[in-house]
Write a structure and sequence with these properties.
The protein is mostly helical. It is built from 4 helices and no strands.
Length: 74
């Protein structure tokens, strides 16, 4: 959440969203994260998606691009 704040993503709260979601999904997510309110949980989930670093995708794209003869020091 600090990264989202530093990125300017947690400014004015003027947008309202709604939807139907499984109660079991919400409760499990709250237990897993320790987040207690629906609003904070939604904000956390959206920030996680917005700040996703795409590490796995980038890792796959760069596979095989390092010279096999490169000495890594071990």
């Amino acid at each position: 959440m600090e990264a989202a704040e530093h990125s300017g993503l947690l400014g004015e709260k003027s947008k309202r969203i709604g939807g139907r979601i499984s109660s079991a999904l919400v409760e499990q997510a709250k237990k897993h994260t320790g987040i207690e309110t629906d609003t904070d949980l939604i904000e956390f989930a959206l920030a996680s998606v917005a700040l996703e670093d795409k590490f796995a995708e980038t890792f796959r794209k760069t596979r095989g691009t390092v010279d096999p003869a490169l000495k890594l020091g071990f």
